[in-house]
Every structure is written in structure tokens, then in C-alpha cells.
Amino acid sequence: MYTDPLQKATLWIEKGLNTLFSQRYNPFYYHGALPNFFIWALFLSGLLLFAYYQPTLANAYASVHYITYELPFGNLFRAMHRYASDGMMIFVILHMLRVWFTDRYREYRILPWVTGVILLTITFIIGLTGYLMIWDQEAVTLANITFNLLKSLPVVGAPVAEALMAGKVISDYTLTRFMFLHLGIPLFMMFMLWLHYLRITRPVSEPPLPLVVMMAGGLFIVSSILPVGLGVLPYGAHDAGAAPLLSGLGSVSSEVYFDLLYAWPQYLAAQNVPPVAVLLLVLAVPVGLLVLPYLQKKALRGQFAQVARENCTGCSLCYQDCPYEAITMVDRGNDGTRFKRLAVVDAGRCANCGLCVGACAFKAIEIPRRETSSVLAEIEASLLSSTT
Amino acid sequence: MTTENNKVIGIVCERSVDFAGKLDDNGYLLDNPAVKIIQVPCSGQIQPIMLETALKNGASGTFAVGCRMGDCHYREGNKFCRERLIGKRMPKLKPSVDKRRVEDYWLSALEYDKLSDMVSQFVVACNQLPSPAAAKKP
Fold first, then answer.
1. Are B7 and A386 an interchain contact pair (Cβ–Cβ within 8 Å)?
2. A31-295 maps to which CATH number?
3. Binary contact (B18, A358; C-beta < 8 A)
4. pLDDT tens for residues A154-168?
5. Rounded to a whole number, what is the distance in Å from the CA of B124 to chain A's nearest CA?
6. Which of A23, A324, A351 sits opposite B70 (nearest CB)?
7. Contact A93, A117 (CB under 8 A)
8. Which CATH number fits domain A306-385: 3.40.47.10, 3.40.1350.10, 3.30.70.20, 3.20.20.30?
């Protein structure tokens, strides 16, 4: 069964975490719920930053400077916002890797996977716009790289770059656009999360309280002892309101530091890789993840749970227990039985897992790969054969 | 007509404890020949009636094995199975079933040794129990 080394590696990590955190609070068992904790942490810490941030060329840097060095608890909130965003990326990627490695991402799980890849991409864009809003020299460099990479793509690149820049040149509207995206995309994220959960009955969307306390405490401690700094004022922006000069990709200096996630396109660009190639490499990540489920041979081969109409009483236990919303209860019409409803399986959503079989007390639903009668026969045969 | 024997039947999720190389040709544990292992795709598929059937046909004990709580491949199978065995979810294990003869283990594919130890203890415990009332019935 577990010949897959990735799956086995995941199990080993989880075994270790079980001894460390106990099975009940193993973070790997809440890999999907933990990003939701960070969404809340980001929302709450972002509120204060939003209250003091000024999205203009003249004031963006100054307002971040004020938040960082003068506003009471400003640095704490900024640090929490920064580290929570790191935590968000880490747990979102862990979530993705775990469902990938444990083979929980395809066929009946295709909708959560596709929406998940979109969510991962927009999380990255939210993070990017967050970096840009600070508008110190690092942010200007990152904006420079982003715009130039986008513009290198023929036909579609330039309009997208202009949409991100809010015009053909950098202006006050550019920073307003960054802020709009930084606040607006999370709203779109909520919609995507709804789609993400749509095929999942009872999604685990909240980590247990002790884990929340642990994460919140960790975030608070890290933010307290590791304050975030602010880079230098953008070169050439010393006269207030002047747009910094954007030059080619070669302007990346070694002192510029970004998260690993944002650093590799910059690194490649600095190695004289053509911008189009870098951009296509960046885009290949989400596209590759989207096609990943289709590269594997189907495991289910069109099998799904079968309802035996003559046995179904319409009790709806299987409907309630199905973890993938694959069973619906329909009006069975006048078919000579005294029952009103009938369970119907949606083949495309069915995982062929047999949870409905365990829920059924009337032998009315079966999965073809393991019929209840075969299990019962095996039990009886083994006890008969060795009667003493 | 069956009589009591010392067999213990385990119904096991094929994704939990890995029995590769641990069973003989008839599905009995090499470490403990009294234990018959029957595999199903997920512990969520285990109906209480399966365990009841084992006891009714003369098994001295029966147990269910699924993945670690929190890590069901199909999301909720082990949780539901456990709830059915402790009477918190329909269909429940019959109240008349001798609970001393029913066990459940929730372990990952890496934890065969742990399971083997616990099952061995369970087998001993079952065999020390007085003759099961369930075995009287054909």
C-alpha cells in the first residue's frame, strides 16, 4: 500500500509530531485549518496598519516609518502582520504538499485542488502587493522587477503591468492600486474559500483552541523579539512626491532581501536569464500544479457506490455521513414501497471510500471493490474452518 | 453449529497499519496465529454488524483498526467508525454485545509493532473471559 516514499515520509513526520504535540493537537492534522488562523491574525493586525497607512508616493514611506518607529505598538503590529504572512505562506504550502503527497488532490477532490491552486496564487499576489506598499528601496526594486517581468510578455504583459501600476508610469495611483489589491483580493479569497469547501462536508476550518493559543503566542513572541525594520527611502525620492526612476532588471543589488518565495525570479533575472523566460517559469508553477492531477492514472476507474433500491429505506444516514456531498436524497415516487425517499449517488463526487456502507444498517448501499457480503463471508468462513 | 474457539477477528483499514509480509496465506497474523485480519478500504466501511457477526459465530474477540485520529484518507472514516463502536453514531454496536470482546486501534501504517503488542494482550484478555454468551447462538 505505502510504496510511495512521499506518503511514507509524511507519515514519519506526523509520527514525530504526534509525540511532540500529541495526536489531538498535531498541526499536520490541521494543515488546512491553520491558514484560517493566519487569515484572522492578518486581518486584525492589518486593521491598525490600514488606519495609519497613506497610499501616496510622498507619504507611503513616511507613514510606514511612523508606524514602525513612532506609533505605540506600531512595530509590534507590523511585525505580527509580516510574520503572520510568512506563517500563512508556510502553512498554505504545507497544506498543498500534504494533500499532494498523501494523494488527496485528484478525481473526487479536483474542485478543492483547483480552487486551492488559485488560492495559493492569490495568496502570493496579496503578499507581493503587501511588500510593495511599504515603498522603501526594496519595494521599489521589487516593483521594478515585477513590472519589467510582466512587460516582457508579448500582447498580454503590458496591459497587466499597466493595470498593476494603474497607468503607464508610477504615480500616486500606483500605491492606491497596490492597496486596493492588497485589501480587495482577500475578499475574492473568501469567495474562493467557499468554492474550496463546497464539496467537503463538515470541513475542518478551525484549529483546536490549544493550537490557536500556541500559534498566537508564538506569533506574539516572535513579533516582540524580532521587530521588523524598514529599508532606505527610495533613491531619488528625497524630494517628496517624485516617482523613483525605474531602470532595467540589472538594478537588483545584493543588499535587497526578499522572502525566498519572491527571491528566485529576482535571482534568475540577475543571472541574465531573459525576462520572458523568468516570467514563464514563475507562471509554470501554478499551471503545473493545475495539470498535476491529470498526469496520474485514475485510481477509481469510474467505480462508485451503488444503491440497492429495494433495500433503501430513505433513512438518510449515508447522506449525512458522506464526507464529499456525493449522496442526495430524492423523492422515490410511488414504487410500491412505504418509503418516501431514496439515496442517489453522484458518480463524479463519489470517492468509493465506503463510509456510506458503514452508515447503512439495511444493506442498501455498497462499493463494488469491497462488498459487505464478502467481508461477512470471510468472517464466517474463518470461524467455521477451524472449529474445534 | 459453531462453538467457541480462541480466534480473534480484526477488521482493518488497508491504509492504516501495514500488514505486508505479516500475514500467512489465509490472512492470519504470523506473530499471533489466533488473529485473523480482514482488510477493507477504510475503517469507515466497518459496520458494527461485522463485529457482531464475528462474535456471534464464535470468535473470542474482535477489533477494528483504522488510521490515526485526524488522518483519515477519506476524511472522517476512522472518527465515524469509533463513534459507532462507542454508541455515538448510527448504526451503533448492539448494547447486548460484550464490550470486553471488542477493541479498536487507531494507528498509522508505520505502527505495526505497537498494534501487534496490543492485539496480543487483547487475545490473552479475551481468552481469560468466561465462555461468551454470544457463542451459544448458532
1. yes
2. 1.20.810.10
3. no
4. 899 999 999 999 988
5. 18
6. A23
7. no
8. 3.30.70.20
